[in-house]
Every structure is written in structure tokens, then in C-alpha cells.
Amino acid sequence: MEGSIESGGGFPAGLARPIARRGFLERTGGIAAAVAVGGSLSACDSIFGGGDDGGVVLDFSTDFGVLNYAYALEQLEAAFYAAVVGHAAFGTTFPAQERLVLQDIALHEAAHRDFFAAAIPALGGQAIPTLNTLFTSINFADRTQVLNTAQMFEDLGVGAYNGAGFYLRDAALLAIAGKIVSVEARHASAIRDLLSPRSGAFAPSAFDDALDPVTVLGAATRYVSANFHLRGR
Amino acid sequence: MEQQNLFGGVDPEVQERVASRRDALFGMGRMGLTLAAASVPVAIAAMARSAFGQTIPASIVQALNFALTLEYLEAEFYTRAVAAGVIPGGDQAIFTTIRDHENQHVAFLQQVLGSQAAARPTFDFTGGNGAGNGPFSPFTNYGHFLVLAQGFEDTGVRAYKGQAPNLMSIDSVLQVALQIHSVEARHAAEVRRLRGQRAGTAEQAPYKGWITLSQVDAAAAAIQSVYNAGVDAADFPTESNTVQGGVNVATLPGQTAASASESFDEPLDMARVLQIVDPFIAG
């Protein structure tokens, strides 16, 4: 079954940064806004001690929570592209130039995923487990559907990193997130160019989205059989 | 003239997006959407100031003026190129899109900085430092135009990335800078792919919107410095860097030095960036 998201509206004490991080349900317009983006969301402002149901806890009160959030998204992207390039019809679904693009992106997303898997424990944190992904709704022999899904994942990734940057407290980790997000943006541009060649579609706005984690995970849960528990924001 | 139009005529969708981001940051509900279009960046600037009292810290003003200088450069570059007719009809939509984005970035930064905004330099897109006799003819030679476009965009990506840690003290400013940074990366990828797809040219791999090692194709040798290391090289390594946070990505399963370098873009320091664009600024 599809995953869900439960979020505890934390007001972490003792933040060093000058601008308070408000409870995210308040910031995003509440439960209704969260439910609107995904099919099976649940949100409870009062549940704070959960996460013992096998779900994935993303605790933003430390940078490791933010890194694990990125790790979750990279797992999802890497699994998606692995399924794309590993599909039996890959060679006939996409022309040669598009296969090269998709194979490159598959490698990059795997690099991002495996980087977080190695870096989080190396820095002293605990990485979230490997997520079970669900791509049964995608017909991998349908070029347009695959590219549209890829565009959604890339734009979502860009918005996720842009929206999570200010949660990071360590400048070195912000720098690394910055190194990744521009590559995600390059992917988004390329995928959009495959769908709408030589148009203005590669960059739909002068300002890319910066998405709240509730929105991002809400969109992601369709493809992950995990329950996310957001904490400490 | 261009700027006056922009201040009054920024795309309402853009205004809404910026306003929404601000709402998300500050929990102000939807009231921001009712603000007059041009006042939204002003509101962000005001909130940025309120976080620190009366003034934005000098270090942030410096970083934003640095960004503004690069945006002035890009905006004028594309505005003049589109007007000059050097761009073939089939590629026009790409560069009017980029031109409009760069103009919006200029307008946004000017409004955030207010009276502290840097003046628009005089540019020399021949790369002649104002003498007009440099090696590039971007407004009559499309190949030159594309090489400089790639160089300016990839430089912009590195420049914003390099400044992000300097903007951490004001969440809203950091976030909008990130929202611009990723758009510059979209531009860079599009230009790189377009260059690669040009028939009959010995240019780069025809599909890559990303940076492989610190390579440039033969036609772009003049912009090699865009991809090299800054100062210091530990914080601002060459684009061929594969070690991230102590992890050598090139040794991860299935990866190579090339794929690892493509997977992570590298930041560049302010002094090095200014050195790269210096030939295009008069005086």
C-alpha cells in the first residue's frame, strides 16, 4: 500500500538562527493543504512520540534529519531511473540520445543516494533504511509517461532542496546540498527539453519552487511504501 | 527603460511564487498574495532587515551585490543578443526565456538591496575590458554567443553556490538565492545541450546538460577557467572533484570519476568569479 505522512508540529527550543521555524502545518495552511497533494496523507499536530510503527522518522531538529530527507528523495529517484534503464523495453521505448540522457541521470541519482548512505553514518548520524518503492502505476514502455514522471521527480527534487536549505545549520552541509540541487536542476532542464525541445519549457519560472517537506513527501508517498514522520520543525 | 518595465511588469505568477515562498517561511498566511506585485521583494527585504534590526549585514549586501553584478552581465548579454538577431529563429524561445529570467533576477536583487544596490557596469562582450577589441563577437557570431552563454551560466551557478553559506543568517534571502541558483543551472543545461546538438560543429557530447570532469569541448577552450579551482581549492575545487564530505563518489558502486564529477557541481569563490568576468566589464 502507499505510504503516508504523519507530522508532529514541533517548535524546537533553543534555535540559534534568528528566524523562528514555525510549526509547518501552520505554515502550509494546515492539514487540508497537506491532504490536497497526496492521496493517503494523515497529519496529526499532537502526535509527537510516534514513529514506532515501522515508519521513517525525519527529525529536522538536527541536520541529519534534513540529510535523511534528501536521502529518501534520492532513493526514490535512483530507484525510478534504475527501473527506467533496466526495463526490457528501454532500448525500443527511447531513441539513442534520450537513452544516453536517462542512463547518465540514473548514474547521478545512484551517486547521490549512495553518497548519503555513506556520508550520514560517516558524519555520526543514522541513515534511514532502504525504502520500498512502488512504481506499479508507471508503464515503463510509455516514453511520454516515463518522461513526465521524470520531470515531476526532478522538479520535485529541485523544490525540495531549495525549500530545505535553510533548515541546515552546518555550512559545509549546505554547500553539499547546493552541489546536488544544481545537478537536479540540470536534469529537470534536460528532461523538459526532451519533452518540449527548443522551447522555453526547460525553465518555467525565473524563480524555481522552494517546497515545504510536507508537500514534497506528500507527492512522494505515492511511490513509497513507507510512512514518514516529520519531527522537530 | 528595460528596468522600468520590469519593475512594473513582473509576471504575476512570479510574484505569487515569491510571495508563496515568503509565506512558507514566515507563516503569514495568504495575505502576501494581495501585496502589489512590485512590493513583494521589498517586503522580503524588509523582513530580512527586521531579522537584524535596521540593516542587512554588510557581508550579505556584498554577496547580493556580487550576484547583482553577474545578473546585470547576463541580462544585458541576452537582451543585446536577442536584439542583434544573432540567434536563429528556432532557438529564439530559449534565449528570450533566459533573457526574461535574468532581467527578473536583476529587478529582484535591486529591490532587495534598495539604495545599497550596485550600479550597472558598462559591459564589453568582446571580452576586451572596455576596449571593444576582445576575442569574442557574440552579437554577430552565434558560436561565440553560445560559448559565452555557457560560460556565464555555469559561472553563475558556481557563484551562487559559493555564496550560499554566506547567506545562512537570513533564511528568506538564502532561500530566494537558492531559487535563482537552480534556475541558472537549468539555463546552463539548456545551453550546453543546445551547443552539443549543433550540426557540423566539433562541440561537446551532444546530450549532456551536466559538467563532465572540468572538460570543455574544443570550441569552448576560451572558457576553461570557468571549470577550474578557486581559492582555496579545498572549499572551491575544480569541477572534476569527486570527493564530497569525505566520501570519494568515484569509488561508489558503478561510478567513475566522470559520473561522480557530473553528479556534484562545485562552488566558486567571489574573487575568482570576478576575475573570470573581468574582461567583460569596462574599466
Please state roughly what percent of the residues of chain A sit in beta strands, choosing from under 5%, 5-15%, 15-25%, 25-35%, 35-45% or over 45%.
Answer: 5-15%
Bin the helical content of chain B: 40-55%
Put simply, the count of helices of chain A is 8
Question: Helix segment count of chain B?
Answer: 9
Order of helices and strands of chain A: EHHEHHHHHHE
The strand order across the widest sheet of chain B is 1-2
Judging from the principal axes of the Cα atoms, what is the shape of chain B? globular
Sequence stretches where pLDDT stays below 50 over 5 or more residues of chain B = 1-39
Helix and strand arrangement:
The complex is a heterodimer of chains A (233) and B (283).
Chain A: E1 4-7, H1 24-27, H2 31-37, E2 56-59, H3 63-86, H4 90-93, H5 96-122, H6 143-164, H7 171-195, H8 213-220, E3 227-231
Parallel strand pairs in A: 1-3, 2-3
Helix pairs in contact in A: 2-8, 3-5, 3-6, 5-7, 6-7
Chain B: H1 2-9, H2 12-26, H3 39-50, H4 58-84, H5 92-113, H6 142-163, H7 171-197, E1 243-244, E2 247-248, H8 257-263, H9 270-277
Antiparallel strand pairs in B: 1-2
Helix pairs in contact in B: 1-5, 2-7, 3-5, 4-5, 4-6, 5-7, 6-7, 6-9
3D architecture notes:
- Chain A is mainly alpha-helical and 233 residues long.
- Chain A contains 8 helices and 3 strands.
- Chain A has helices at residues 24-27, 31-37, 63-86, 90-93, 96-122, 143-164, 171-195, 213-220; strands at 4-7, 56-59, 227-231.
- A 3-stranded parallel sheet of chain A has the order 1-3-2.
- In chain A, helix 2 packs parallel to helix 8 and helix 3 (63-86) packs antiparallel against helix 5.
- Residues 8-53 of chain A have low confidence and may be disordered.
- Mean pLDDT of chain B is 85; it is low at 1-39.
- In chain B, strands 1-2 form a two-stranded antiparallel ribbon.
- In chain B, strand 1 and strand 2 form a beta hairpin.
- Chain B is mainly α.
- Chain B is built from 9 helices and 2 strands, in the order αααααααββαα.
- Chain B has helices at residues 2-9, 12-26, 39-50, 58-84, 92-113, 142-163, 171-197, 257-263, 270-277, and strands spanning 243-244, 247-248.
- The chains are: A mainly alpha (233), B mainly alpha (283).
- Chains A and B meet through helix 5, helix 6 and helix 7 of A and helix 2, helix 5, helix 6, helix 7 and helix 8 of B.
